[in-house]
Amino acid sequence: MSRARRKIEHIAHALSTGSVGKHGFDDIVFVHQSLPNLRTNDIDLRTTLGELTLSSPLFINAMTGGGGRATLEINKGLAEAAKECRIAMAVGSQMAALKDANERPSFEIVRQVNPNGVIFANIGSEATVEDAKRVVDMIEANGLQIHLNVVQELIMPEGDRDFTGALRRIEQIVRHVDVPVIVKEVGFGMSKETAVQLADVGVMIVDVGGFGGTNFARIENQRRSAILSYFNEWGISTAASIVEVSQTVPHLSVIGSGGVRTAFDAAKAIALGAAAVGVAGSFLKLLIEEGAESLVEEIHALHTDLSLIMSALGAKTIEELRRVPLVIRGDTHHWLTERGFD
Ligand code: FNR
């Protein structure tokens, strides 16, 4: 099957499969505060991610590019919404565009539409330093995402089977590329052990890409009628993963993503320790089914809702939201206790 065809199939399956798993946010309960002592209008949504300053903690996470007209239109719509709402955006994997110049326009459009926006390039952990520099240059990126997708590769019969050397390549990229590097999972979550390994080689920003949102195991299995079904429930929930990583390596900037759909989810991700929150599948669904204007409305609504939630918690800044009291119950509590967090 061609790569372009696979990309379109992924999008179609992502839309139909939707978010099915347990991201763990239902286990998080905020503790209401009756004396917030702030004005909702004074709430400041700015956040920092490593050395980057973002005007909002929300951003559009990596999805697509390459593969022809359809992905160009998607990236154009996502970039228009990102520009209008002043949020950051990541493009999908640019690995194919390194080899084939025909794949580039659907990435380049993102920078053309949004010349001053914060945009993240995206590659896999098989990439070299040279590849990394080229994908950053391709879209004049402000940051570089390196995705880790072992389970997705294992499920694809044509996928990679050699996972050696990824950490060493990441280390080289962090050293030699001049934009901040974000190492991200793609829906299986990130453990504290992985976070320590990444921090040890100089990574400053990680995206937990937790279980509970878009599920590539299900997507790949659906495409070939459930061969490796044991991977369908594989992964660390987004809520548990944020706590594992942020509490184990406090100097890391953590992005909470995987199944974030509402401002309530986003607020919980931040309160658990995230500095920013990525949304992929649910934004894509809205863009394709209802268009870029609906996506813009949705992002504005998410910002409004986040300000209201922060008001109720007495948190004027994202930094303050990260410190509000909360209660963790159910499976997430159980997971975190088993994993040595109290
Ligand atoms: C993705 N995702 C992804 N991630 C990445 O780093 N490079 C990529 O090329 C892609 N491609 C891609 C395509 C499609 C159609 C979807 C829906 C997602 C993964 C994405 O960035 C994110 O980590 C997961 O989707 C989990 O977030 P959501 O979708 O639950 O918000």
Overview of the molecule:
By secondary structure, the chain is of the alpha/beta class. It is 45% helix and 14% strand. It has 15 helices and twelve strands. It has helices spanning 3-17, 69-85, 95-99, 105-113, 129-138, 150-155, 166-176, 192-200, 216-223, 238-248, 263-271, 281-290, 292-313, 318-321, 330-338, and strands at 28-30, 47-49, 52-54, 58-60, 88-90, 119-124, 143-148, 181-185, 205-207, 253-257, 276-279, 326-328. An eight-stranded parallel β-barrel has the order 4-5-6-7-8-9-10-11, surrounded by six helices. Strands 1-12 form a two-stranded antiparallel ribbon. Strands 2-3 form a two-stranded antiparallel ribbon. Strand 8 (181-185), helix 8 (192-200) and strand 9 form a beta-alpha-beta unit. The chain is globular and about 60 Å long. The mean pLDDT is 95. Bound molecules: ligand FNR. Residues 10-11, 14, 19, 61-64, 92-93, 122, 145, 147, 184, 186-187, 209, 213-214, 257-260, 279-281, 284 line the site of ligand FNR. Ligand FNR binds next to helix 1, strand 7 and helix 12.
Which features characterize this protein?
342 residues; alpha/beta; two-stranded antiparallel ribbon; 15 helices; 45% helix; 14% strand; binds ligand FNR
**Helical run tally:** 15
Count of beta strands: 12
Strand order, largest beta sheet: 4-5-6-7-8-9-10-11
Terminal-residue CA separation = 48 Å
Order of helices and strands: HEEEEHEHHEHEHHEHEHHEHEHHHEH
Residue share in helix:
40-55%
Write down the Rg. 19 Å
- Our estimate of the beta-strand percent is 5-15%
Biggest sheet statistics: 8 strands, parallel, barrel
Shape: globular
What is the residue-mean pLDDT, rounded to a whole number? 95
Uncertain segments: none
Bound molecules: ligand FNR
Structural class: alpha/beta
Keywords: Cytoplasm, Flavoprotein, FMN, Isomerase, Isoprene biosynthesis, Magnesium, Metal-binding, NADP
Function: Involved in the biosynthesis of isoprenoids. Catalyzes the 1,3-allylic rearrangement of the homoallylic substrate isopentenyl (IPP) to its allylic isomer, dimethylallyl diphosphate (DMAPP).
Protein name: Isopentenyl-diphosphate delta-isomerase
Organism: Thermaerobacillus caldiproteolyticus
